[in-house]
Amino acid sequence: MFFWISCLAAGLSLYLLVWVFTRPLLQKKGQMHHMPGRLLLHLSWPWILALTPVCQPFVSWRMRRGLSQRLLTAGLGQWCLPEHIVAMQLFGLFTLTLVSALTLQASGVSRLTHIVLPCLLVGLVGMLWPRYWLRSLARQRQLQMLREFPFLLDMTTLCVEAGLNLHGALQQAAQHGPEGPLRGELRHALADMRAGVPRVQALQKLAQRCGVPAVQSLVTALAQADQLGMNLGPLLRSQSEQRRVERFLRAEKLALEAPVKMLFPMVFCIFPCTFLIIGFPIVIKLLAFDS
C-alpha cells in the first residue's frame, strides 16, 4: 500500500513539474510572432514573458527610460519592453547557473566551494549578456543607418531642388532609397504624418528612434527652416556635404586605427615565428660549437 502511495505521489509531482514548466509555453504561444527570428530567443521567450510580471515592480523609472531608448535605437521597441530585458537577465542568471551546477556535478566535482563560485560567475555572464546583446544590436543598426544616410539625404536634396516640397521629397527617398533600417524609420515617420502627426514632431520621433547625431542635426535644421521660412535646397545641400565630410573623416579614422589594431597579432603571432626562424640556425650553430 505504501509503495502505491509513493508511486502516486511521484507521478503527481512529475505532472505538476511538467505543468509548471510548460504552462508559459501554452499560454504565450500566440505572442511569439512579434519576435525577431532568433532560435534561442524563440525557445526562451515564453518563460521570459512568464517572468515579466515578477520583474516589473523592480524596474525603476531611470532604468525604464534608459532601456526604452536603447530598445528604440535597436529597433525592438515595437515588441519588447524594458521589463522584458530584465526578465531576460533573470532567466539567463537562473538558467546558466543551473546548467553549470548540473554540469559540474555530473563531471564529478563534489566540493561545494568548487561548484558555487564557477556557477555564480557563469550566472553573472548570463545576467549581463542581454544588456550586451541590446547594446551591440543598437550599435550595428546605427552604423548601418550612417551608411544609408548620405544617399537618402542626396536623394531628398535632388528632389527638393527639382521642385518637390519636403514631404514629396521624403516620400521619394522612402520609396526609392536603399533598403535598411533608416528607410524603415523614414516610412514610419511618413505614416505618422499621414495619421495626423505634425511633420516636425514626426521627424523628431524619427531622430529619437534612430539615436544618430547626424539625423538629429538634420531634423533640428529642418525644424528651424520650417519656423523661419528658409529655402530648403541650400540647407539640404550643406547638410549633405557635411555628412559626406564626416563619412570621409570616419573612414580616415578607421584607416589610422588599423596599424594599432594590427600591433597585437604582430607582436604575439608574427614576431615570435619570425624570431624562431631567424634564431633557430644560430642556436644550432652555438650548440654545435659548444660540443
Automatic annotation (TrEMBL):
Pfam families per the UniProt record, alphabetical: T2SSF
Assigned GO CC terms: plasma membrane
Subcellular location: Cell membrane
Transmembrane region(s): 46-64, 85-106, 112-134, 263-284
Signal peptide (UniProt feature, chain positions): none
Gene3D superfamilies named in the record: Type II secretion system (T2SS), domain F (1.20.81.30)
InterPro entries, per the entry: T2SS_GspF_dom, T2SS_GspF_sf
Membrane topology listed for this record: Multi-pass membrane protein
Record PANTHER family: INTEGRAL MEMBRANE PROTEIN-RELATED, PILUS ASSEMBLE PROTEIN
Protein known as: Type II secretion system F family protein
